[in-house]
Amino acid sequence: MSKQTPAPWVLIEVMGHSRVVGSDNQTVVGFSTRSPNDKWSCNARLIAAAPELLEQCELFKRNLEYQIAVDASKGDQEGVNLKKFTLETITAAIAKAEGKS
């Protein structure tokens, strides 16, 4: 896991200003918004969900690794190949999120 602000991250919106705050009460990012549905508010919600999304990607990666081993033990090469492609994609996304790519 990277050295990010501890999760969970929470979105706080007050009078046209949005802040994403970590569990240590440190601001991750803050900016002004025009409405709850403008692009900045939508981006803020996505940023606030980032730690949980990364955690789920890591869980999905471990599950894929297990399923690849199961498919290989059954001789299902097509299943192995499909899951390996997906594993490469999710591994690249995790690396990007952790600043390793």
List the defining traits of the structure above.
101 residues, three-stranded antiparallel sheet, 2 helices, 3 strands
Characterization of this structure:
- The structure is a single chain.
- This protein is an alpha+beta fold and 101 residues long.
- It has one domain.
- Helix content is 55%, strand content 16%.
- It has two helices and three strands, in the order E-E-E-H-H.
- It has a three-stranded antiparallel sheet with strand order 1-2-3, covered by helices on one side.
- Strand 2 (17-21) and strand 3 (27-32) form a beta hairpin.
- The longest helix is centred in the middle third of the chain and has 35 residues, at 39-73.
- The chain is elongated and about 60 Å long.
- The mean pLDDT is 90.
Summarize the structure.
The chain has 101 residues and is an alpha+beta fold.
Total helical elements: 2
3D shape: elongated
Number of discrete domains: 1
Stretches where pLDDT is under 50 for at least 5 consecutive residues are none
The succession of helices and strands, N to C, reads: EEEHH
Task: Characterize the biggest β-sheet.
Answer: 3 strands, antiparallel
In quaternary terms, these chains amount to: single chain
Radius of gyration: 18 Å
Class by alpha and beta content: alpha+beta
The overall pLDDT, averaged over residues, is 90
From the N-terminal CA to the C-terminal CA, the straight-line distance is 14 Å
Give the helix proportion (percent range).
Answer: 55-70%
Q: Order of strands across the widest beta sheet?
A: 1-2-3
What fraction of residues sit in β-strands? 15-25%
Find the count of extended strands (DSSP E, 2+ residues). Answer: 3
